[in-house]
């Protein structure tokens, strides 16, 4: 049994303790990066490697250490260095508290409030009712000592929107929660049993003024809110890291889960035999046409997705570096950030969905034995499953990609294909010319060639973009309401647009790194 699987012999508590123990062990192996010099690539690699060993441990560390440290780096300042040192030394463990009972995807409507008290120079945190309880927060149920809390900042009766705060939750020595904090465990989940997801409500809970992550905005000595971020370019770079790092991690993890599921099923199919041919020889499952049609698309997807995830991680790290170096203009950084975000939103969705479906198909392809705990596919499915929901629900995320593309479509001045990762989508500039093209393919070989496939994909994106935009315009005129128009445009238009964009992005990265000769051989060998 793999280490990420929960033995039925261990209780939930024992299993969580084991994950916690593994996390502690990891601290002895990890090399803490310097403050403000966070090594994005290093953390991504550590996360990916740990996920293969045990998904619970990787998520615990990602939430409890890496995301917290990343947020301090990106949104905090020198005054938060102590938290940074403590978390890397394993003295404290964090969680990321965003989701509330009433609102998850719609983060703008989160209600937890941090009101500034000028007399004591503290923030007073309150949960205005059960609906605003923070829920689903990983590490919060039992083990974390601190929360990276996102709450509405209010100063002198004026709301300044969501800000990040470092909030002590439990005494690091006793793990007893502090007064004013109502915290609890969410109970047993369908998977990821090593992670204690929890809820919390605040009752006039006070934290020092300094615990506000103040890179975006701060409260000055006079008790007034001020935007302390003098360099907007850095703010954008910061948001790139904080928003996207988690999704890059999820793409990497999903590609490994896909790989694992496919390997199990293909190996099984190669040696498992059912039914005899006319000579009385039992046939391996892999020889059955239906089996090939069930597994080979996922096998192919594994190659493409795994290579995309490697390639895109590197490009993402390059983008983070470029945003920090200051060699790009402010506008370019802004466009790069939105390009990375748009590509990640749709690829995170398509890759996690593909992996989810692949795990189910591979489980079935292994028959009854695939259902045994020892096969690993049941745990893999349950542990992978929430990736389609956390770090942004997939259906909601893909809307961000289509919105971004529609914006580019309507405003050519917004386009800058030199800064988007992998220079994607530059063909949009020739949209009408592409749409007027007719296919001149006359044989199967050309039809299956990479260039024909990519040309067809380009045409499809252009067509979806144009028709989605047309539909959106018509709906906006009809209802005079952007929200309604967007909603009514999703099925058969905007959602498909984003999904096709994800497929193209993944393929582009793959074809970019794969030598043409290797592709030719693959097409020759496996073509019809
Ligand atoms: C295992 C796990 C771990 C988690 N860990 C954390 C954590 O550490 N910290 C944290 O803050 N949160 C965490 N979450 C919460 C997670 O981020 C939220 O569940 C997620 O953002 C979705 O929000 P929601 O659950 O409120 O779903 P909702 O927003 O209510 O969505 C429900 C459904 O409605 C659909 N929907 C919503 N809006 C639209 C729309 N505009 N158009 C079309 N469809 C729509 C969605 O696609 C979804 O299928 C975790 C969740 C899980 C399952």
Automatic annotation (TrEMBL):
<feature type="domain" description="Acyl-CoA oxidase C-alpha1">
    <location>
        <begin position="244"/>
        <end position="406"/>
    </location>
</feature>
<keyword id="KW-0274">FAD</keyword>
<dbReference type="InterPro" id="IPR009100">
    <property type="entry name" value="AcylCoA_DH/oxidase_NM_dom_sf"/>
</dbReference>
<dbReference type="GO" id="GO:0005504">
    <property type="term" value="F:fatty acid binding"/>
</dbReference>
<dbReference type="InterPro" id="IPR036250">
    <property type="entry name" value="AcylCo_DH-like_C"/>
</dbReference>
<dbReference type="Pfam" id="PF02770">
    <property type="entry name" value="Acyl-CoA_dh_M"/>
</dbReference>
<dbReference type="GO" id="GO:0005777">
    <property type="term" value="C:peroxisome"/>
</dbReference>
<feature type="domain" description="Acyl-CoA oxidase/dehydrogenase middle">
    <location>
        <begin position="95"/>
        <end position="204"/>
    </location>
</feature>
<dbReference type="InterPro" id="IPR046373">
    <property type="entry name" value="Acyl-CoA_Oxase/DH_mid-dom_sf"/>
</dbReference>
<dbReference type="Pfam" id="PF22924">
    <property type="entry name" value="ACOX_C_alpha1"/>
</dbReference>
<keyword id="KW-0560">Oxidoreductase</keyword>
<dbReference type="InterPro" id="IPR055060">
    <property type="entry name" value="ACOX_C_alpha1"/>
</dbReference>
<dbReference type="GO" id="GO:0055088">
    <property type="term" value="P:lipid homeostasis"/>
</dbReference>
<dbReference type="GO" id="GO:0071949">
    <property type="term" value="F:FAD binding"/>
</dbReference>
<keyword id="KW-0576">Peroxisome</keyword>
<dbReference type="InterPro" id="IPR006091">
    <property type="entry name" value="Acyl-CoA_Oxase/DH_mid-dom"/>
</dbReference>
<keyword id="KW-0276">Fatty acid metabolism</keyword>
<dbReference type="GO" id="GO:0033540">
    <property type="term" value="P:fatty acid beta-oxidation using acyl-CoA oxidase"/>
</dbReference>
<protein>
    <recommendedName>
        <fullName>acyl-CoA oxidase</fullName>
        <ecNumber>1.3.3.6</ecNumber>
    </recommendedName>
</protein>
<dbReference type="InterPro" id="IPR012258">
    <property type="entry name" value="Acyl-CoA_oxidase"/>
</dbReference>
<dbReference type="GO" id="GO:0016402">
    <property type="term" value="F:pristanoyl-CoA oxidase activity"/>
</dbReference>
<keyword id="KW-0443">Lipid metabolism</keyword>
<keyword id="KW-0285">Flavoprotein</keyword>
<comment type="similarity">
    <text>Belongs to the acyl-CoA oxidase family.</text>
</comment>
